[in-house]
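A further point concerns the way the authors explain their paired sequence and structure data. Each protein is reduced to its one-letter sequence and a matching series of backbone shape codes. An entry of this sort, consisting of the sequence and the corresponding backbone structure tokens, reads as follows:
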Amino acid sequence: MKNFDENIAQRGVELPLVEEFYSLQGEGYHTGKAAYFIRIGGCDIGCRWCDSKMSWNPALHPLISIDTIVANALKTSANAVVVTGGEPSLFNLKPLSDKLKVHNIQTFIETAGAKPLTGTWDWICLSPKPQNPPNEEFFALANELKVIIYDDEDYRWAEEMAEKVNDNCMLYLQSEWSRYEQNISAIVDYVKTYPKWNVSLQAHKFMHIP
């Protein structure tokens, strides 16, 4: 990852903002629920199939005060904020989550968990990647495990991760979007065979919304 500023990351009072918008959650347990999305720039994982590669380099995105970000969220009817990336665990998110909590906003995060967790979260979606495995603390904290299926090897990774998460964690398999047609039948069969798993669809893409 280029031009990553550790001082900015540790302070967390400004964040490299890729985009922010009010929409419906399209994946996992909260699919269909309204939320305000905050996509933070910076990622040191680099999945080959990533659909948000524009977020990888934080230097490409303006540093925005978290006061401004929170104010923008409050202009909407959202009662929940989803922080995503990129990889949000690169940043100190306590200042942001604290400011959202002042306004009784629910705080959700989606992360690969490669760095220690900061902030206060009502829902943690752990989406682990084998090239940069999660920090161990996330297995006890995760509310939701979402594993992206690109090829058959990813099922093995999914099961390895499922063995580590807590008993209350919801388990989801989600096809990588460009391989949806190739993968979905096998994913459905897998979930029918191993019903501890659920299928996550990228519903926002089917609805043609952000």
